[in-house]
Amino acid sequence: SGRPADMRWRSSRADKPPSELAAARNGGHRSLSLSSRLLHTLAGAFLAYCVCIVRDSRACARSAAPSLSTTTAAAARPSAAELASPPLRPSAAFRTASSPPPEQADTAWCSSSPPTTGSELSVKDVAFGILTAKNLVQSRVHAQQLSWLPQARDVVFYSEADLEALQPTVALEPPPKEELVGGGAWKNFPALMDLHKRFPRHAWIFFCDDDTYVYMGNLLAMLGSYHEERDWYIGLYWTPRIDMEWKEVHIAYASGGAGYALSRPMLARLSETMPQCHTRYTRWAGDIRVGKCVNDLGVRVRAEAGFHHESHDKYEWDNTGGGHPYGHLSHKASAHKRPPITFHHLQPTQLELYYRMQFVRHRRPDGAVEAYDFGEFMLREFSGYSPQLRQHVRLLFGFSVELSGGGPRDAPNWRKDFSDPLYLRRLSADESSGEASFSLVVAKVPNVFDGDGCDVPLADTHRAPARQAADVRLQCTPCASAMVGGHLQPLLGQLCDVQRRDSCTLELVVSLPCPEPQLVKAVVFDLGTAPGAADVVSMGSAACDGRSAVRLRRGVLSQDSPLALHPSVSHGSVDTLPATATADVPGCRALLGGSVELSSGGRLARGRSNLPPLTLACDCDAALVPPSARAAAPQGGSLAAAAAPPLRADGVAGGGGAVGVNLTLTLGLADFTSPTIAVAAACPLVHRAAARLR
Questions:
Q1: Of 53, 284, 393, 630, whose CB has the highest number of CB atoms within 10 Å?
Q2: How far is CA 270 from each of CA 208, 583, 670, rounded to the nearest angstrom?
Q3: Hey, CA dihedral for 330, 335, 341, 347, is it positive or negative?
């Protein structure tokens, strides 16, 4: 938050030096009087509170009173670098003690507390409401589901009808005297009332349309700079059209298409008046109605940079900041002060484009999926004058490379020579430095008469078919700029050089502080020991530093009595690969069944009913199990090794016992990092031919 490190609440005892504490214990008169100590504490508290209010800092306000019993620390949230794949917050079912949980049904537990990181906002703190319609599910909504939406944990869609193919969807009805039924302007109030009931503990509610793209990391960074316990209504500053609603209502409001955020207290206050607003305001656009209802409570819209009512190509981008209020009645935009948060009025292909130019994903040799998120650099300007080309050159990161003639002192008149973004990809790491580098390619827009083909053979298969393009090489180390006016001292964040590689390729070199790769987690996916539970896997992450532990407390784990693990998806779907399970004792095997989607691969989708569980069982061949393992007590059960009769292959009881086995279950998630689960179980001994086991 940028607050002074010493600006905190402190107890009167902590403020006194040891000499005064000793004098106070001995009844001396050198200690401060009770009244002076109280005044000292209250003055410090008041000063800290004022600083927090002025700065609007949630982090400052939260750390301002660690000693007050009425302000306990909030649950730890992941850092900004981990926003794309937040770690698990263990539910009550997880244990932090080193000993097993008490006798009960199958439970998940941790041998140590998961690490906590910082106090930044997590995707679990924000619930999303999206307005849509039946005829837009397969176009707009589908494009959102393939781009930014899988990064959101809690999402609800709102439509005029209940949509079986899109869950969770809430069907809404207009008020009795609604004057704009066909336009859907009436949907805002009932949708917000439903979000308030569904997510009363979420710090924020974010509301937008089905043709909006959201840069999740940038949104969370912006919201994280506000104190969530105050009344906030944040978005793109907008006013009614002078020839329409302005004749009746003179207010500023947040554009609904660009998206707006309501803090938890703000939505709670609004929930008390929204029923009246819903029946009273029936002839304006939906976002104006919300703004008027908020305005009636004495709260004004908080204008923030980064929200956009149109797509990026509808604006003139520069470094002036975008005006104040940002973007209001202007075609000027800027990523100088804050990177983009949203764009609106997008075609499905544009939604896919924004995602493609934001993320670089790759699968590591160990199978984990990582992503580099360049969202904080989107549309940031890198410019300079090239003495070799005798032209001004400007990169608007992710979207265009522009040129302008004239001398170095002339004001540039930018031409969008290259404005068709193709891809952003990771190149091989530098063997000497170990640093990764990236290539951002923006092609020339095809000319109707001259075409855009190249007569130069290109080694880069990613540019097929061959096109004239600007190839921007992104290096993660400082560079000395060869541009006129550039820094000769190696720095990050500047245009280093521009060369014409061949007749088809303009090559730029840009240095910037590259994002760290983050594991990609399926934040919509949970797995639990009961339907709807998330005590084994939560938000795509297993507990205990990425490895969830399940301890069985009910005896032998057999095919007749398997462990049932219930999957759930908060919204959308998750593509799966066949799960794998292994046992650590020779002669023992793990047996998977139940959910075809998890055991064999397929697609897990959110529906109206619970998904079938994945079942896990095990057995051990009596002829192949080492005597030492057979004698050991089962690690997972409360029974002794011989407490249960052994089974033959046909399931008939024989003469033996059970073996303590550690099973390792790895779920196969096609597009995400697959969580691994450790299961401590007692597996029954069976009489089975060794050849069959092999």
A1: 393
A2: 18, 55, 41
A3: positive
Which string of DSSP letters, residue by residue, matches 451-503? Answer: ----SS--S-GGGPSP--EEEEEEESS-B---SBT--SS-BSSEEEEEEEEET
Residues 650-679 pLDDT 10s: 333 334 588 889 999 999 999 999 999 888
- The pLDDT, as a whole number, for residue 644 is 34
Residue 369: alpha-carbon gap to chain centroid? 15
Express each pLDDT in 41-78 by its tens digit. Answer: 566 555 555 544 444 444 444 433 333 222 222 333 33
The whole-angstrom separation of Cα 216 and Cα 225 is 15
Per DSSP bridges, beta strands 391-396 and 400-404 are antiparallel
Q: Are 153 and 124 in contact (CB under 8 A)?
A: yes
Residue 623 contacts residue 602 (beta carbons within 8 Å): no
Check: CB of residue 616 under 8 Å from CB of residue 665.
Answer: yes
Q: Answer with the residue of higher pLDDT: 677 or 347.
A: 347
Question: How much is the pLDDT for 497?
Answer: 94
Decide if 286 contacts 186 (C-beta within 8 A): yes
Amino acid 553: pLDDT: 54
**pLDDT of 199 over the 70 cut:** yes
Would you say residue 231 has pLDDT above 70? yes
Q: Are strands 437-444 and 415-426 parallel, antiparallel or unpaired?
A: antiparallel
Strands (E), 241-368: 253-254, 260-263, 302-303, 316-317, 332-333, 342-343, 359-363
Task: Tell me the three state secondary structure of residue 654.
Answer: coil
Task: Give the integer Cα–Cα distance in Å for 128 and 375.
Answer: 19
Q: Which two tokens stand for residue 411?
A: 């004001």
Any residues with CB less than 8 A from the CB of 143 and at least 6 apart, and which? Answer: 348, 349, 351, 352
The residue type found at 153 is R
User: Hey, is 373 helix, strand or coil?
Assistant: strand
> Which tokens sit at 155?
């999402």
Q: Is 402 helix (H, G, I), strand (E, B) or coil?
A: strand
Q: Which of 617, 540, 534 is nearest to 576 (CA)?
A: 540
**pLDDT for the residue numbered 329:** 76
Which of 46-50, 140-144, 553-557, 661-665: highest mean pLDDT? 140-144
Give the rounded percent of residues in the chain with a pLDDT score beyond 70: 74
| Secondary structure tally for the chain: helices H, strands E | 14, 36
C-alpha 365, offset from chain centre: 24
pLDDT band, very low/low/confident/very high, at 110 (cuts 50, 70, 90): low
Measure the CA–CA gap between 142 and 138, rounded to whole angstroms: 5
Q: Are strands 541-542 and 537-538 parallel, antiparallel or unpaired?
A: antiparallel
Which tops the pLDDT comparison, 436 or 493? 493
Q: What number of other Cβ atoms are within 10 A of residue 430's Cβ?
A: 13
184 φψ region: left (φ > 0), alpha (ψ -120 to 50), beta (else): left
- Smallest CA-to-CA distance from 673 within 472, 465, 504, 522 is with 522
Q: Which residue has the higher pLDDT, 639 or 579?
A: 579
Asked if residues 494 and 482 have their Cβ atoms less than 8 Å apart, the reply is: no
Q: Between the CA of residue 308 and those of 254, 353, 431, 659, what are the distances in Å?
A: 11, 16, 41, 62
